[in-house]
Amino acid sequence: MINDITIASRLVGPNHKPFIIAEMSGNHNQSLERALAIVDAAAQAGADAIKLQTYTADTMTLPGAFTIEDENSLWKGRELYDLYKEAYTPWEWHQPIFDRAREHGMLAFSSPFDETAVDFLEELEAPVYKIASFENTDHPLLRKVAATGKPVIMSTGAATVQEVAEAVQVLREAGCQELILLKCTSTYPSTPENTNLLTIPHMRELYGVQVGLSDHTMGVGAAVAAVALGATVIEKHFTLRRADGGVDSAFSLEPEELNMLVVESERAWLAMGHVQYGVQKAEEKSRLFKRSVYAAQDIKAGDVLTKENIRVIRPGLGLAPKYYDDLLGKTATTDIKAGTPFTWGMV
Question: Which residues does the UniProt record annotate as the domain AFP-like (predicted)?
Answer without folding.
Answer: 292-347
